[in-house]
Amino acid sequence: MIELKTPGEIDAIDAAGSVVARILAAVRERAAPGVRPSELDALASDMIAEAGAVSSFRGYHPRWAPGPYPGVLCVSVNDAVVHGIPSRTKLREGDLLSVDFAVHLDGWCADAAFSVVVGNGDPASAVGSASSASSDEKLIATTEAALEAGIAAAQPGAQMGDVGHAIGQVARGAGYGMLADHGGHGVGRSMHEEPHVPNEAKPRRGLRLRPGLVIAIEPMLHAGGKDSYRHDRDGWTIRTADGSRAAHAEHTIAITENGPRILTLP
Ligand code: MF3
Ligand code: CO
Predict the structure, then answer these.
(1) Is 111 among the annotated ligand-binding positions?
(2) pLDDT (tens digit, 9 = 90+) per residue, 189-228?
(3) Which of 36, 95, 135, 250 is deepest in the core (most CB within 10 A)?
């Protein structure tokens, strides 16, 4: 069932979203060569407690997963697309880092993600060639553009297919692959609610978007142009099948009478 939220409930999700945005900004600030993803997870965990919030990830156990999720962040590096478990392997200059994060505050959830190239962005010092550093930046910029296009399409009276179409046009237009069968989702008291939010769809199809609908929009783009992926031995981490790098960007938004409202901003 799809539940529309009242303006007061949307404000409550916005409050959770502010916490998410603030903590993600701190994680982004801390991410640097030599830092362990497990340290980023500890930073986020401390900040969640200070904010009086609760992790939406830790202990989460979907049917397909081997066990409860062990962290508060998903930290996906290079060919890891999403659901990377924060490891003790130090980040290196030029790594493509994706961080996904959600909290519950006063019973309401918000979910967001960003990608960034680790280090000072000096292509000469990056692992690999200068061109790989700038192509990573292009992959990330295109992922962010796909997210923005998806958000812009999320107008009251539009349809869910318009959102997927807008995302897919940007991603495919740049020649990138996307994670088959993955996309965004409704957000509310639970992190994952109906409806599914496709990253590729036909326009003028699907659910009519109405004020009060709250969804996470989350394009995941692969540099390699293929859609295939594999699960890591850990049962969680999703990696590109061809080893190419991937980027992820996500906001939780509300459809309002005045258009889309981004709830995961500081
Ligand atoms: N935010 C992620 C998503 O919407 C959920 C991560 S599941 C977790 O796909 F268990 F890793 F937390
Ligand atoms: Co999500």
Answers:
(1) yes
(2) 999 999 999 999 999 999 999 999 999 999 999 999 999 9
(3) 250
